[in-house]
Amino acid sequence: MATEFALENEISPVDFIQLQEYIEYSRIKAKDAMKEFHAGGKLVHHRFGDHIDATGFSLFLNNYLEVEDFPADLCQRLYWYFQRSEQSCPDQIPHTKDGGVSLKAVLCYFSILEDGNPRDKLEYTFKLYDKDDNGLLDSKEVDKIVTQMMQAAEYLGWDVTELKPVLRDMLKAIDIDSSGTVTQQEWIQGGLNNIPLLVLLGLKVAEKDGQHVWRLKNFSRPTYCFVCQNMMLGLRKQGLSCNYCKYTVHSSCANKNRTQCVRTFVKSKTEIGCSAHDWISADCESNKCEICHKKIKILTGKSCAWCHRMRHSDCVPLCSSQCDCGLLQHHILPPWAICAMDLTDSSSGSSLGENYLANINSDGHFLQIFPVNDTQPLLVFVNPKSGGKQGKRVLRKFQYLLNPRQVYNLDNGGPNPGLQFFQNLHKYRILVCGGDGTVGWILDAIDKAAMVNRPPVAILPLGTGNDLARCLHWGGGYEGTDLTEIIKQIEESTLVQMDRWSLQVIPVDMADEGDPVPNDIINNYFSVGVDASIAHQFHVMREKHPQKFNSRTRNKLWYFQLATSETISASCRNLKECLTIECFGVPVDLSRLSLEGIAVLNIPSMHGGSNLWGETKNAEKLKKWEEVTVDCDALKMCSQDMNDKLLEVVGLESVVEMGQIYTGLKRKAHRLLQAAQITIRTSKTLPMQIDGEPWMQPPCTIHITHKNQANMLMAPSAKSLGCFSK
């Protein structure tokens, strides 16, 4: 009966994955959410001593994970899990009236699941398993760690057949003085040098240049371990693969590996500009050696990390050691172009302040770029949360194709460290892998950095709408094409200017609190009314249930469902009664139309591919630039351009009309005006959105004026990119 109860309330692999998804989408750290249990906090009355009750635990989860309805059954299983971890007998049935759960255990557990640096996470795990708080892990506590790590390995898909003895030996080795107990210092120092432990804890291993960055992988075809040279066997994830060089090992062989990963910089000024191959053991089977032109057999080949040419291991020394970086030579930032400098010798006085700290290596040296002639390196920013799991895959692929030093995960400090690192380059391009919001983030960062040479920006669309990417011919969404082809398209792209606009919102009543305005710059569009209402409902639902919005297709289905509901409710009917528009003092007549929304357009795409302004035939286009155009006949001849320093405003009758334009049943929305600046006044609370970010705005006056122009890259064609258009 007791065992049955324990199993019923155990955390299943599905629960574990669901919990990780919640944590991934939350912006709050566990240690910050815990402050509500301290004096003056909202949840302090649910605390007694160093424990919290069941209600307090439930409220903590809702606050920490930023949801209003965390699954009650999962909450209960988590609660019992923490209770059982404190009991001497794990099968003991918990009582209904209990002593709560330990604040320390809850904090440590969730802190381990969050992103963080290895040292902090190892400290958290030590505190979690040191049940008697004596600063030592005894044999029982070590056994508990092995059990928990076995469970974690199963959750993560490891083949655990031979893992348990490996884990025991690993933890025994951490006991440096062989005292039978492990101190916190031994645990941290030993853990930092123990790859399976770090991978199980979800930590980034690369502390120094030349260290592999491992990830668990399921190999779809016969693959061999480069340490023991045996095949990777198992039905689940059979081993580890390095993100940077694709070196593969069994998880049990990882600590035995002595082969270095690629070097990403040089340590002496004398090495700057001295190109050299970096040969790594690789799966070269069936490929031909570039020296002897014979096929390379299993485990007998090496591949250069930079030019990706392949040779037999015996043929490596038979030819020049100089490397030209192969097909991507104009885009790669090779290690001989990056040097470790003393802080006193480097020009670290940057307008980006302390961001240079992100580019200091483990030896305390500042990394500085020394440009290679006739190259235009690519600075890659990846939003790993965009496009479901696409962002993470794209991040890994670019880390392999290019120098990892030029590929930045935006979850780790945002774009400023990358911009600072590239600041002394006069010629380079930026590739933003994410949605339109991610692109806006990068453009804002470039503005704030006050850069003398503003780099042009290309887009790999990973978001849901991707309207800006569509306008620049990068397509409506990345579909997994070879990233080498994407880089070639960037090389063939054309530089274009894109207008950017300042938005100022002045509330009628300063005491009337609404939602915060998400941004004060318009890159794509601004709207009020029906489409903003749908976007706001979508935003609220995604905040409550982030796990339901993890793919582009699923997001579009939610949009369709919400649009259908809005069609029935028509929450923004008679919009003209509570909204006015004027340009340079000229009012716009809205009386002739029955509108549910208005949209202010900077680019010819909205709602994931709708051209609301419509096309204007060349024969009809006006030749003269006008500051304001409101005449109906003149508007028919006004074309739209993202760099003409003009905005276009259209009226939307309903959700049905939006659908008709999207599907091509209707050519365009109602053209209201074209102007160089716009003022909108509202007399009631209305839904609004700026570049897809919605909010509810009380009565206000809105001023939209031209800010500047951004350098963007337009792809030569959409067809060859492997990105769909609609």
Gist of the model:
Pathway: Lipid metabolism; glycerolipid metabolism. Its EC number is 2.7.1.107. This protein is of the alpha+beta class.
Q: List low-pLDDT spans.
A: 1-9, 88-97, 346-357
> What is the terminal separation in angstroms?
56 Å
Number of helices: 20
Report strand %: 15-25%
- Biggest β-sheet: strands ordered side by side in the sheet: 25-27-26-24-21-29-30
- What composes the largest sheet? 7 strands, antiparallel
- Share of helical residues: 25-40%
The tally of beta strands, per DSSP, is 32
Which whole number gives the mean pLDDT?
81
- Give Rg in angstroms: 29 Å
* Class from helix and strand fractions: alpha+beta
Structure description:
There is one protein chain. Residues 1-9, 88-97 and 346-357 have low confidence and may be disordered. The two termini are 56 Å apart. The strands form 9 sheets. A 7-stranded antiparallel beta sheet has the order 25-27-26-24-21-29-30. A 6-stranded antiparallel beta sheet has the order 20-19-31-28-22-23, with no helix packed on it. Strands 15-14-16-17 form a 4-stranded parallel beta sheet, sandwiched between helices. The chain is of the alpha+beta class. 29% of the residues lie in helices and 19% in strands. Helix 12 links the parallel strand 14 (378-382) and strand 15. The protein is globular and about 85 Å long. The protein contains 20 helices and 32 strands.
